[in-house]
Amino acid sequence: MRWIERWAGPMFRAVTRLEELCLATGILGIALLTIANVLVRTTLGTSLLFAEEVSRFLIVFVTFVGIGYATSKGRHIRMTALYDAMPLRARKVLMLLITASTSLLLFALTWLALRYTLGTVRELGAVSPVLQVPRYLVYLSAPFGFFLGGVQYLLAFLKNLSTSEVYLSFEKLDEYDDSPPKGI
């Protein structure tokens, strides 16, 4: 199982770096467009027509890319009442089941979203009102984000397969911080 560490480690870092780059660019773009629109509106009395539309596109993009990034940090919401009460071996088996099934689900959603986007949405020919951008290009954010999430869950599955500990993601160990909150 040494091959998992040698292959999956660089893959995890590359995918996470891509997600960070996409998220940083998207959020920075939203902020800059909002600031520019406010400045133009207060100085010239008119809005940048494209600012709201591009900001919406970026919000959709950031939302879907965030699926994989949250997975890479082990930050998805989890219902753990039963899981926490299980012995380590049972938690390990359950985590393998969770990461494998979630990865498969996200890859299936990737395929379905891609088929819907490149088939139905593209065939409808809908475009955005201001920039006339084909809607299917914006909708491609969904399969892209699902795919990144699927890769992250697959990497978490491989990590759990190759170690005795339980991992929430490729790098995030499933552990609790029992220290009291700061300031108490």
UniProtKB/TrEMBL annotation:
GO terms for molecular function: transmembrane transporter activity. InterPro entries: DctQ (IPR055348), TRAP_DctQ (IPR007387). GO terms for cellular component: plasma membrane. The chain crosses the membrane at residues 21-42, 54-72, 93-116, 136-158. GO terms for biological process: C4-dicarboxylate transport. It holds the Pfam family DctQ. Its main location: membrane. It is a multi-pass membrane protein. Keywords: Cell inner membrane, Cell membrane, Membrane, Transmembrane, Transmembrane helix, Transport. It is found in: Cell inner membrane. Residues 30-161 form the Tripartite ATP-independent periplasmic transporters DctQ component domain. Part of the tripartite ATP-independent periplasmic (TRAP) transport system. Belongs to the TRAP transporter small permease family. The complex comprises the extracytoplasmic solute receptor protein and the two transmembrane proteins. This is TRAP transporter small permease protein. It comes from Nitrococcus mobilis Nb-231.
